[in-house]
Amino acid sequence: MxxxxxxxxxxxxxxxxxxxxxxxxxxxxxxxxxxxxxLFPMMLLLLFGSVFxxxxxxxGVTFAQYFLAxxxxxxxxxxxxxxxxxxxxxxxxxxxxKRIQGTPLPATSYFAAKVAQVLLxxxxxxxxxxxxxxxxxxxxLPSDAGHxxxxxxxxxxxxxxxxxxxxxxxTLLRNAKSGSAVITPIVLFLQFTSGVFLVYTQIPTFLQxxxxxxxxxxxxxxxxxxxxxxxxxxxxxxxxxxxxTGAIVLAAWVVIGLVLAVKTFRWTRHDDN
Length: 273
Description:
The protein is mostly helical. The chain has one domain. The chain contains ten helices and two strands, in the order ααββαααααααα. The chain has helices at about 10-30, 30-50, 65-95, 95-100, 105-135, 145-170, 180-195, 205-210, 215-225, 245-265, and strands at about 55-60, 60. It has a two-stranded antiparallel ribbon with strand order 1-2. Helix 2 runs parallel beside helix 5, helix 3 (about 65-95) runs antiparallel to helix 5 and helix 3 runs parallel beside helix 6 (about 145-170). It starts with 11 loop residues before the first helix and ends in a 9-residue tail after the last helix. It is found in: Cell membrane; Membrane. This is Transport permease protein. Pfam families: ABC2_membrane. It is a multi-pass membrane protein. It comes from Demequina zhanjiangensis.
């Protein structure tokens, strides 16, 4: 008899890609996530753009154009922080994480798949928002590699910070039911103080200083440097885009989120002994 060849041993890459496929299928099958990630930001952009879009906040810059940059930044935060924290918390409550821990899937593959899913979904979301801005609100896309390079590192650093913080926050939530009540006020506070729903320089100074501690302010300002005219930098709080400072703050939050995620993450429910 001819011996049956043993199936090839799964590699880390193959297991990660398989897990990514599962993550994407679960995401696109969830109506709630689809509405929250795609439809809700589009509705906000269209709503605020319709009500305040034509108002000029600086020569040649309308509120709708300013708001687009904030919504792109906010979308990255929502996908990587709010949505990810909630979905992981739900998986923990339903013992999905516990079952995954008992499989041969390496923990690094699981988290790599989560990060890849956030990157892909965020990229689609951002592309949709930019398309709306260009078609409806006359946002002019940059034509040089420098601005697109800025967009790339702001997007990647911002996504990394939001993702690591989302993983860390998922453990701080005692259960998925209370998750929305905990996370939503945090996100709303950051949105209103970081130049998303309001022009940043019109926010009280002490709230500006608070917002400067957190990633969303620097995400939004970085995106404004990409999509708004170069001379708008003079209208920023300190008269420049402060891209170096933004990169440092975002990178610091990546490290903070990573440390918190590694130190606090748990695969089982808080009441599971």
